[in-house]
Amino acid sequence: MKQYLEVGKLNNTHGIKGEFKxxxxxxxxxxxxxxxxxxxxxxxxxxxxxxxVRPQKNMAVIKFEGIDxxxxxxxxxxxxxxxxxxxxxxxxNANYIADLIGCYVVDTDTEEEYGRVVDVLNYGSCDIxxxxxxxxxxxxxxxxxxxxEINTEYQVIRIKKMKGLFDEN
Length: 169
Fold this sequence. Notes:
Layout: E1 4-14, E2 19-24, H1 29-32, E3 37-39, E4 47-56, E5 59-64, H2 70-74, E6 80-84, H3 97-100, E7 104-107, E8 113-122, E9 127-133, E10 136-141, E11 147-151, E12 156-159
Parallel strand pairs: 7-12
Antiparallel strand pairs: 1-2, 1-6, 2-5, 3-4, 4-5, 7-8, 8-9, 9-10, 11-12
């Protein structure tokens, strides 16, 4: 499992005092507010101490220690931010997308393997798992009627096949 997960992108500067507009790649700003430190790399070697985070429309405005001018902020514009998974809590029944990608999808009744999760999409009502097998993609809704068990430790997602979910030929 990845220790450092992408939380967003520093889209642009905000004002002249070193703040940034951050596009959130995590669930919401409350999740982001759990972090005292974010990183400019996925190994945790380039820390930035978070001074403040506040919502602005569908983004966040974030300020870091030591970045107090627009000139300093300009140097980091476009950077991806990472958070250490140990620094934040998620609900017991929630999973990080990074942990779902690569999981095998298996039928709960027949043990038939349908492929691996290559992406997790969301268009509003629920997550949708993009399952790939032999170059063919199938989208399945991540709803309780279909997804019966997720075990990211063993990289297995067990599903109950519904009529029409996979091609019936």
